[in-house]
Amino acid sequence: MSSERDSETTFDEDSQPNDEVVPYSDDDTEDELDSQQPAIEPVQNRINTGTEESQEPLKKDCSWQVKANDHHFYEQPQFKRKIFLCFKKSKYAGNAIKTYKYNLVTFLPLNLFEQFKRAANSYFLVLLILQAIPQISTLSWYTTLVPLLLVLGITAVKDLVDDIVRHRMDNEVNNRTCEVIREGRFKNTKWKDIKVGDIIRLKKNTFVPADILLLSSSEPNSLCYVETAELDGETNLKFKMALEVTDRYLQEEKAMADFNGLIECEEPNNRLDKFTGTLFWRNRSYALDADKILLRGCKVRNTDFCHGVVIFAGADTKIMKNSGKTKFKRTKIDSLMNYMVYTIFVVLILFSAGLAIGHTYWEQQIGNSSWYLYDAQDYSPPYRGFLNFWGYIIVLNTMVPISLYVSVEVIRLGQSYFINWDLQMYYPEKDTAAKARTTTLNEQLGQIHYIFSDKTGTLTQNIMTFKKCCINGQRYGDCRDSAGQLPSHPEQVDFSWNRYADGKFLFYDHYLIEQIRSKKEPEIQEFFLLLAICHTVMVDVSDGQINYQAASPDEGALVTAARNFGYVFLSRTQNTITISEMGTERTYDVLAILDFNSDRKRMSVIVRESNGNIRLYCKGADTVIFERLHPRNLKREATEEALDVFASETLRTLCLCYRDISHDEFEAWNKKFMEASVATSNRDEALDKVYEEVEKDLILLGATAIEDKLQDGVPETISKLSKADIKIWVLTGDKKETAENIGFSCELLTDETTICYGEDISGLLQTRLENQRNRAGSSTHSSLRMNEPFFQGSRNRALIITGSWLNEILLEKKKKKKKKLRLKFPRTEEEKQKQMEKKRRAEAYKEQQQKNFVDLACECKAVICCRVTPKQKAMVVDLVKKYKKAITLAIGDGANDVNMIKTAHIGVGISGQEGMQAVMSSDYSFGQFRYLQRLLLVHGRWSYIRMCKFLRYFFYKNFAFTLVHIWYSFFNGFSAQTAYEDWFITLYNVLYSSLPVLLVGLFDQDVSDKLSLRFPRLYILGQKDLLFNYKKFFRSLLHGAVTSMIIFFIPYGAYLQTMGQDGEAPSDYQSFAVTAATSLVFVVNLQIGLDTSYWTFVNAFSVFGSIAIYFGITFDFHSAGIHVLFPSAFQFTGTAPNALKQLYLWLTMALTIAVCLLPVVAQRFLSMTISPSESDRIQKNRKKYLAEEEQWQRRQSAFRRGVSARRSAYAFSHQRGYADLIASGRSIRKKRAPLAAVLGSTTGAAETS
After folding, report:
1. Which residues of 1058-1079 are buried (b: 16+ CB within 10 A; e: fewer)?
2. In Å, what is the CA distance from 576 to each residue of 536, 565, 569, 608, 654?
3. Does residue 323 contact residue 898 with C-beta atoms inside 8 Å?
4. Annotated binding site for Mg(2+), which residues?
5. How crowded is the C-beta side of 1003, counted as CA atoms within 13 Å?
6. Which residues are part of a known binding site?
7. Which of 345, 465, 750, 957 meets the CB 3.0–4.6 Å disulfide criterion with 1084?
């Protein structure tokens, strides 16, 4: 039994996770896993054109068929699917994308359906129906209809405005154009009109509109360079290559129009780097893989034009498959509010039932024996009690405040506009303002526990810059003049002496320039020559401008730096490389390129100089270079010190070295190299072994230091958010070394941080899971021990885990089935039960393991997940939501972040360099990561405080208003008669008490925005739900109940034996109603005045204006003139003028107001004096704080020498470089037809937008 259990959860020992690869198990089937082979070098790096045709096409699961240039092909019955009853639709999606919710037809029904899902709206609809029944209604129907229509109308308009914005953004994308074959010619066509099977032409710097099979391009051998930042966050160029047969025959427009190939491939899925298919054309079949596919969201770079056939369109594209479903998001307060409304429903029913029972008893004891109360209806007391139950449901309906929802929507709308109008969140460089794309989540911004951030383009700028270097033990890059002295003020180096300088490079060390130009130190010349020679960068010259195409952004930065310092890479052929060395052109013979891979962490190039000498140049991570240095390297120690200095400044370092090789040694080595190059099995291992033989006894030249530029203010923002007790997790598709380095740069990690990796925690989790399984049936004490922390002590820990380890630890990795010859027999019931039990147990273990992982990760101060897929990003967010019940925020800028953004409670998109997909799927957007602190610590906190204050007061004022009816019931035979005039009931929540609380919900603030940012600890109130919860709710209800008693019983006592100044007794029902109503209006409006922290003229005007409006309307409605016009609707004729002229009643109202408010004033005074909150203390000293000129100082990391773990190895490219491509000669530009000839007769085609 134990072995069976172990097999369900134990990790596969034979296949340890690979940190360097992104796992693609999102949609992997068991069969695919079985067929997977060990990772081999990408096919494009060693193309063998002869094998293209002979390769066995893979037909398994290739049920997706695409016929080029044939729209009728897709109308066949087998390509239709049933959508409803007998209605069928093509299984091939159109290319239009849709993020909106409504259209003209569906808006009204769908919107009303969504609104009536709210308990309060449905309740008031039922109430409106009840009020139409005269036997049970004591209130006019308009008292409910008017507020209900107002609520539905305002909410519908807001939803419509939101959806119109989504329509506009969708239209912006769908109406982009590209050239598509129509009627035999390329014509400009909108993206939304592109269909599967269309042949399209894309030009340089345009986005790919759908997933297409590359057919040909303007580059040699139909190479096509693409930027995949939208997909995986990587800004370095990738290259794709068409089939040799399509490159040869599909160049001209007529050939494209006549192309009729049939493609059979896998069904649409979300695996970004996997594709399997076959092209059938000219009676032959050709295997297709991911290297020949351009995905939607990529951008064509350094390729004048390319052609392709659409395979997946719109919702079927891989990027859309990764985007996840749009989820309806609601705030925590919304959910709490709904439960509170349900609580009020229960209270309402209990009150109504109690009062109905009271009426039944009263009828039996008094009503039946009182002849003067006979109403000509011979109903029994129980039946009268039953009718009164519904009567009280109607009378007490204001306990469930219908205006609550419309007021909440108005407040949220206002808060959204404040975010949109905030100039301190405006990014002028890109003319990008902050945008609240939804209006329903603002207060949740004040309750965030976890932030999940992308790295590339979100924390960083996607820009690599050469900052410093160490040459021959001497450090360069600090601000110095040409004599090596510190200048009085920094002055930028003038590169005008170099005609190849790109003009964008900024450098401040004049001393290094002086050394280069003087040519006194040969090591400096060798250093920059190495940078110009040792790389796999390819060059493109257009209009006299040199453009580099690099496999990684770091490599591009190094070659660009060498170019600016006078060592310019000009061109290369299959066997040579041409360099301009301080104005002198030299060509070197390239004898071998020893390319990067993840294990080697270095690259080398062997060149023959003009004098015949053979030299190896090498660059790589310090850890691998130092192992291969000659024992007598005098500058090693100085270089190590420089590396530590660079590392403390969070720069990415790389060591450079060289070695002279004799002719005999090279000949012997080259023979082995050629044999390994053509090995049919284990070729990579054979090559690595040969590389090792020559990469030894190296002479150290120095080291480079590159800055992966962070966005402005990232460390400060992370520091402030951490002080607000918000945990930040970074989820990125980038490599582990790069992600770790950025963690140090943005101060998420420090030198004091203890870093745990996937391999470190897997043992901990496995042990914990085994213990939990063994103790599953044990006592409660043992289960309590299982909840103890994973780490002992309070050390500062961080977790860095790769996608492969994440799959392994979370038991997401699918297991390979061992294929055995088995005879299939029908399963017995017992076998089926066993199988079900086994599956159930495996799921339980998996869930427990996932919970353990979340608990462990949450013990860490920071978590960095690298090499993760978009689906894994969403999974991590979902796990924290599920097991921690915490409010989450996801922030990103690329299409690979969309799933994560949609999964989190709040999604934030950065309008960056990676398109608009993240923004279109987000709830909030802005231009820079640093604005997140203002969004949360200012707008989020204010929104939460305002909403909580608004809700507490709203429930209070409604209970204070409604419960008066209950006290009055004890004196009117529980007859469901109202204590107020009908018009007062109708207008109380609309005019008399709504404006002041609405303005508090919009403008109130306990401390200013500057103090909110300066004291991030103020944010913790929202995380702990301290300002609005069930305790606060019941306190508001109790406060309202006490207020209602005072408002009823003080006037009631005053009216018992009263004589007016004119000798008349004002103690009639109508005068009492006016007295109670007037007292209520004064109390609730003055109460909101006490609750207001931030007074403005508008607040004061609203409080006193509401009271003035009450008197104006009351005197008007009680006038004789309006009674003459509408005698049945206005029956309180003359009541207010008569009652309010009595001084005795004014004294009664003054006493009522004082008894209601003075205890509140006393309680507030004692609270602020004895135990003031943090915001009270800050508010008290606000003038002192605002007068201080202190700025938030960024805490510098402690500097420690010799910490090699801090060094960034180098951000190696995520795939092998271009070495094989260069060596094969397939990248070398040959003379080919100009673009005009290729385009055939289509002259003057419009540019692709």
Report:
1. bebeeeeebbeebbbbbbbbbb
2. 12, 22, 12, 9, 25
3. yes
4. 454, 456, 893, 897
5. 15
6. 454-456, 555, 596, 619, 652, 732-734, 867, 873, 893, 896-897
7. 957
Residue for token digits 């590392």? 647
651 with 708: CB under 8 angstroms? no
Q: pTM of the predicted model, to two decimals?
A: 0.78
Beta bridge partners of 907: 890
pLDDT digits (tens, 9 = 90+) for 783-839: 444 567 777 766 788 999 988 888 888 877 654 444 444 555 567 788 888 888 888
The CA distance from 871 to 1196, in Å, is: 36
C-alpha closest to that of 438 among 886, 927, 1004, 901 = 901
Nearest-angstrom CA–CA distance, 226 and 1041? 68
Helix (H, G, I), strand (E, B) or coil at 857: helix
What's the CA gap between 874 and 886, in Å, rounded?
15
Distance between CA atoms of residues 446 and 1021, nearest Å: 9
8 Rama class: left (phi>0) / alpha (psi -120 to 50) / beta: alpha
Q: What pLDDT shows up at residue 60?
A: 46
Residue 354's Cβ-side half-sphere holds a number of Cα atoms within 13 Å equal to 11
| Helix (H/G/I), strand (E/B), else coil: 1106 | helix
Read off the pLDDT of each residue in 91-103 and give the average, rounded to a whole number: 85
Chain center to CA of 310 = 30
* pLDDT (tens digit per residue) in 277-288: 899 998 898 888
Taking the C-alpha atoms of residue 772 and residue 162, their distance in angstroms, rounded to an integer, is 49
* Strand (E) or helix (H) holding 300: strand 299-301
d(CA 172, CA 318): 21
Cα–Cα distance list, 985 to 550, 973, 990 (Å): 73, 21, 9
Q: How many CB atoms lie within 10 A of CB 13?
A: 6
Percent of the chain residues topping a pLDDT of 70: 83
Q: What's the sign of the alpha-carbon dihedral 792, 794, 796, 801?
A: positive
909 close to 893: Cβ distance less than 8 angstroms: yes
Sheet with 797-802: strands ordered across: 435-436, 924-926, 906-910, 888-892, 450-453, 727-731, 862-866, 797-802, 754-757
In contact, 683 and 41? CB cutoff 8 Å: yes
Contact 1236, 1245 (CB under 8 A): no
**Taking the CB of residue 527, how many other CB atoms lie within 10 A of it?**
25
1238 is written with which tokens?
A: 């290729």
Residues 6+ apart with CB under 8 A from 1014: 1185, 1192
132 CB neighbour count, 10 Å cutoff: 10
Nearest to 605 by CA among 623, 581, 644, 579: 579
Mean pLDDT, range 959-970, rounded to an integer:
93
In the predicted model, what is the mean pLDDT of residues 1065-1086? 87
Distance CA 880, CA 1116 (A): 59
Lowest mean pLDDT across 259-273, 318-332, 384-398, 1219-1233: 1219-1233
3-state secondary structure of 814: coil
As a residue count, the chain comes to: 1249
Q: How far is it, in rounded angstroms, from Cα 1078 to Cα 1088?
A: 16
**Annotated binding-site ranges for ATP:** 454-456, 555, 596, 619, 652, 732-734, 867, 873, 896-897
Quick one: three-class SS letters along 167-233?
A: HHHHHHHHCCEEEEEECCEEEEEEHHHCCCCCEEEEECCCECCCEEEEEEECCHHHEEEEECHHHHC
Supply angle C-alpha 936, 746, 718, rounded to 5.
20
Q: How far, in Å, CA of 326 to CA of 162, rounded?
A: 15
324: left (phi over 0), alpha (psi -120 to 50) or beta: left
Which residues are known catalytic residues? 454
